[in-house]
Amino acid sequence: MQAAKHKSPQRGLSRAVVQARAARPRHNAAMPRLLSEPLLDTAWTVVCLCAEWCAACREYRHAFERRAREQRDAAHVWVDIEDDSDWLGDIDVETLPTLLVLQGGRPMFFGPVLPHVDVVDRTLRALKEHGPSGDPVPDEYKDAVALVIEALRVG
After folding, report:
1. Per residue in 47-71, pLDDT tens?
2. Which sign, positive or negative, has the C-alpha torsion 32, 35, 39, 43?
3. Domain range spanning residue 75?
4. Count of structural domains, the chain
5. 4 closest CA partner among 121, 66, 97
6. Cα 127–85–94 angle (5° rounding)?
7. What is the pLDDT of the chain when averaged over all its residues?
8. Is the peptide bond before 97 cis (omega within 30 degrees of 0)?
9. Does the pLDDT at position 24 exceed 60?
10. Looking at residue 31, what is its pLDDT?
């Protein structure tokens, strides 16, 4: 795992969501890679937060993309925390890769993971069987996670 600092000032949730709605990003080469169809109302969505400069992330991306093609248990989204910062908003991710797992648009897991695709398999299986343990999103990430969810809804 690699460490990454992308510091930002704290924003109020309402301001962040308003900014995301106002921006309504359009797809371009720098946008997050939607690797499978998102269905936020009912399905699972796995968002991988990485960075192109991170060697572990570059290697992991191939396995994550393969999982997106082969597994139909979740939508898969690849987000570069620097290149996609307009879409993502300001976020301070300290360890890469970091996964955000959503069910019906509700956060179920948020945290750093080892760059092995079987971690996604185990995480989804555990969440489906047991649900999240406590609040899965630390307070300092709630605004950024809300932006991701909003962007998936409008994107």
Report:
1. 999 999 999 999 999 999 999 999 9
2. negative
3. 2-154
4. 1
5. 97
6. 55
7. 79
8. yes
9. no
10. 42
Q: Is the dihedral of CA 22, 98, 31, 89 positive or negative?
A: positive
**Alpha carbons 53 and 37: distance in angstroms, whole number:** 27
CA 99/CA 112 separation, integer angstroms:
6
CA 128 to chain centre: 18
Cα separation of 112 and 43, whole Å?
22
Nearest to 87 by CA among 43, 34, 41: 34
CATH number of residue 75's parent domain? 3.40.30.10
Nearest 5°: CA angle at 31, between 104 and 46? 30
64 with 34: CB under 8 angstroms? no
Global pTM value:
0.77
> Which residue reads 């308003």 in tokens?
18
Both structure tokens of 39: 């269905």
